[in-house]
Amino acid sequence: MNWAVIMAGGAGTRFWPLSRRHQPKQLLPIVSRRTMIEETVNRLSPVVPKERILVITNRALKPKIEKLLRGVPRKNIIAEPCPRNTAPCLALAALHIERRDPDAVFAALPADHAIGDAKSFRKHLQLAFRLASKDRHVVFGIPPSLPHTGFGYVFCGEKTGVEDNIGIFRGLKFVEKPSHDKAKAFVRSGKYFWNSGMFAWKLSFFLEAFRTSMPETAGLFRDIRLALGRRGGEKTVDKIFPRFRSVSIDYGLMERVKDLCVVKARFDWSDVGSWRELEQWHPKDRSGNALIGKTIALDSFGNIVRSESRLVALLGVKDLLIVESPDALLVASKDKAQEVKKVVEELYRRKMIHFL
What we know:
This protein is of the alpha/beta class and 356 residues long. The protein is built from eleven helices and 17 strands. A five-stranded mixed beta barrel has the order 6-9-7-8-10. It has a four-stranded mixed β-sheet with strand order 12-14-16-17, with no helix packed on it. The protein is globular. The mean pLDDT is 94.
């Protein structure tokens, strides 16, 4: 059967002042009236029913996610004992699925991505499941629209097929975030896709590949497998899990595998990496302003405004990012949207913890 693992443990510091330690990006309504994680769950139906969706998060967020995702069984919302990046996160999820469905095929999806056409996404997902069932590592590749230096890339070889008008390519290697010059060359070549961070595997194939790529984890797999489902097993997992090396699934597994299959995405996609993304997902007025909440813009152009609790009025300004929350206000040049985390770092430095 088909399963989905939603990774929902991130902090989302670029979305301050709305995102906070206990209210990160995936729990915010960034691109619609629903939270990002609700959008992620809802677009999976009916390809993956809610009883076969696992959410991996941290202990602080688990109660909030349980309230948000009422249709997802509580036993499917799993708190990691500690942060260890995406490779151990997915290993833990895979072992939970193995107990219930050893023949499963599963997709790994971030909780905080925006996808414009849910119907098209589901068609791609069904294709990914079919390909993964044939013992392949599957990744969704996003055709690059610009030489982005904040994404990893996948270098592709020949096209191996087309299904439902979706191209399938042989993946040759993953490439870390490049310099601007390299990114421009990647885009010009037409042989590179953005690495979306969305993957699919047959469960048994994933577990074997994980053990091969990270052989030091073999004993940890065995011990966690024995602990799951036992009385008191959670405490045992708490002791074992921190022994995993903190490593991403890209570096720990995908950069080392063969049989890599790239599904070329034909739907609008964004990792929603900063407030700048609101320009893509919200309508603009005639002056190019993206205005959310109680806002007025006069003689102002190209601004992004998000108001939560009061009126924000603009007069004669250009290319600003303004985000208002009940206890904090962010005003920045729009081109500094990726650097909002610097504000968070400064708040930590000044011990202004109540704003975090």
